[in-house]
Write a structure and sequence with these properties.
- 2 copies of one chain form a homodimer.
- The first copy, chain A, has about 170 residues and is mainly α.
- In chain A, strands 1-2 form a two-stranded antiparallel sheet.
- The two termini of chain A are about 30 Å apart.
- Chain A has helices at about 10-35, 40, 55-70, 85-100, 105-110, 130-155, 160-165, and strands at about 115-120, 125-130.
- The first copy, chain A, is globular.
- In chain A, a hairpin with a 2-residue loop joins strand 1 and strand 2.
- At the A-B interface, helix 1, strand 2, helix 6 and helix 7 of A face helix 1, strand 2, helix 6 and helix 7 of B.
Chain lengths: ~170, ~170
Amino acid sequence: MTLSMYEASAPCFVSMLRSLDSILGKAQAHAAAKKIEPSVLLTARLFPDMFTFVRQVQIASDHAKGAVGRLAGVELPKYEDNEQTFEEVRARVAKTIAFIESVKAGQINGSEDREITLKVGGKDMTFKGLPYLVSFALPNFYFHLVTAYNILRHNGVEIGKRDYLAMPGNKT
Amino acid sequence: MTLSMYEASAPCFVSMLRSLDSILGKAQAHAAAKKIEPSVLLTARLFPDMFTFVRQVQIASDHAKGAVGRLAGVELPKYEDNEQTFEEVRARVAKTIAFIESVKAGQINGSEDREITLKVGGKDMTFKGLPYLVSFALPNFYFHLVTAYNILRHNGVEIGKRDYLAMPGNKT
């Protein structure tokens, strides 16, 4: 097996998004069992000027689909960012996974030097494919994914690293 | 430029660890300015059964040095995990960076199929180099790095995504 732009991107995003879906399922069950209004968890933040849980998931989804679509040179699906329930958030994760899985390895491989331009903080930024993936898309994806996890964990949802990583792991 | 095991590991860890050092500097300055006992931040957690800030940094450091050392097939430096001050935590980050920078690209490249065995949750787990890096070491590293960031952010330290990513970015 050789490391390729595909191996370093699509399957990793899909695996982590599947974990996120399982974590969302646990949060949904926790809210039902504890009679917590789901919107309390969905709009929770770790600090007043941080994004809500739902926004963290939306941005993680955007970085995953953005990376795969841009590296492959295909049009990115547009999502409305209007999710308000666990069902809608899980549907967002599911369609992100479906989009990533629609892209084939051959479309992504060889994209190391592909020129990629995107808006960051309102300004156009141009990257080559390789630094875009390893120094921008992956750190951003993990940033919002882990922050989403931490918001739930901080609110008492019983999840642990084995939900995040889907393999035997230590507690957080 | 071609994606290689080196490009996907060592420079990414170093870049994120440099950001972590800068975040640690801001936390240290924040504690001094607000007359907060540094140990309050260093031992903070997001939930009672989660690890403290210092432990999150130690584990992020371990995953970074572990990945680079194991992929290169060199002996891992042992750290005592006894950091108790900002100075000591920053020294831990600095020696992790120095170790990673002591490893050359040629030692890591070609390690896709290298067999790597490590203890996970008390049990031996064996990986090939490629899945070890992209499906274990990187997600674990980011998990503890972002959780460390979130602990500080939750405690009011004025940091943002541009500190984490060291490039223009949006707020968290």
